[in-house]
Amino acid sequence: MDTEQKIVSQQTSPRHNRPFLQPLAVALVCAVFIGLILTMGVMDLRRSETTLDGFMRNQGLRIVGVVERLAMENLKTMIQASLRASGSDFRPLSEQVLSPQVFFTQKVVEMAREIDNRWKTEHISGSYIRQYAQEKNLWLVAVLNAWGKVIFMSRSLPDEPVRGKESLMKTGGGEANELFARLGRLKKVGFIALQRPDGSGTIVIALDQDSARYWGTRVSVEKAMEKLGEGQGLVYLTIRDKIGRPLGNTGKSPEELKREDPLVAKILDGSQGIETRLTRHDEKSLFEIIVPLRLDGQIAGIVRLGLERENTDRILNENRRNIYVFLALIVLITLLSMWLLYHDQNRHLAGIVAMERQLEKAERLSSLGQLAAGVAHEIRNPLNAISMASQRLKREFTPAEAMKSEEFETMTGVIRDEVRRLNGIIEEFLTFSKSRKLEIRDCPVQEVLQKIVNLVSAEAAAKGIAIQTHWKDNPVVVPMDMDKLQQAFLNFVKNAMESIAGEGSITLSVRRQEKGWVSIKIADTGCGMTTEEVDKIFSPEYTTKEKGLGLGLPLAHEIIRGHGGEIHVQSREGKGTTFEILLPMERRKQVRGAKDE
Q: What is the pTM for the complete model shown?
């Protein structure tokens, strides 16, 4: 069977309906605080990104600086080697000086081999030779057959007469010698003649001052790029001269910058020293740097290199993730703090409201006490006079006629009963007003209950109500005001008897509990109560009695609270009610009666 229970001494007043503005202020402060943290996090993230980008920029500039330094050293050694070779004093060349010169020669030989490979696989033509010389920036490319006859030549020699080429074609084997002699007579022009491996012809490549400077710079740059090595995060490095000719390339570079690009013009004229930007290439995030190539203090070209940004992105993503996690924790802590503050403030406010209601109740009870005292003084004497007058009327002025005598007896009886009822009301007021003054001493609970059983047993038997008791012979001693506590228990028993219509039973039991408490239960088989009625039974303003004020249970409640006890009510409509009274077995400082005294 389901039950409904109420702990009266622990009941709290309903929650307040007034809004609490302080959490809104806290929320505003927390929002500002979160905004500051977010702003600081974003600023720190940008500062980290700027620092890492600056590190990558310096790394790229160091790479460019190494290339420029090595390329300039290679150029100087090549110039030094050429001056020694053309000078009157012969000096042997060191390996350090000879290395760039050999590399330069190898590049020229590679171009001759490229032409030879084309000659082997396909037929070459004059247009191919002219196009190749133009693409490679060569002053002259000539192809001779096995007999030394010029087959193709990219350009005419400047000192050659009008029919010079025809005379070369007709001289047979001496044509090659005449070509070499004419090239030798040209100032600021050098050439290399490479015979085919099978002896079926000769390829001649000549360079003037401009093409020699270009290829010398290109060879120097490529030689320098070979010494860069790996492990620097370099994805590509592309170097071109001022007119867009390639000077060196490593890695798979993106689409080349156009000469019409304003950035290229700014870099080459020196108005912009460096350009950095983030880009993607081959599904990689790169940090690209574009700077001028400076050789011997002059801008000789433009350098474009890309560095891997994977480590930088990983660090930034980790910082960003840490900021988000930290911010989420701050928001969570803020929301939790707001909830705790709101909950705590509501609890305290509800406690204040409950205290206010208890104070109002105490004031009302105090007013009732004062009213009871006034009623006792102002009404008791007139009531005594009315009672004495009604008795005298009944004794001395009873009519002789039987019909009138009976009616007279009825009227005087009504007066007497109403006077007695008014006197009972006054007694209830007086008793309620004096209930807080307790005289505490140690007494057995069973003794108090047994007195009540002896007092009501006759009346209960007359109504068909059985009184049952359940307690041990060992006395349970409790600090109490015996008279007041007996009055409280008697009120509970009377209330139980009034709730039983017809036959029924009332059970009284005593049981020790843990932590120094004793439990006294008064259970009946009466009509029971609803939840709404249970909430109101201890209120002085509530009563279901047609006669009297219904102050019995409120009086009992005040007495139990004065002893520092609790009352638990368990009731179900139509099934009966059980009052469980918990009393402390030790005297406590907070006992209300002692404090009130």
A: 0.51
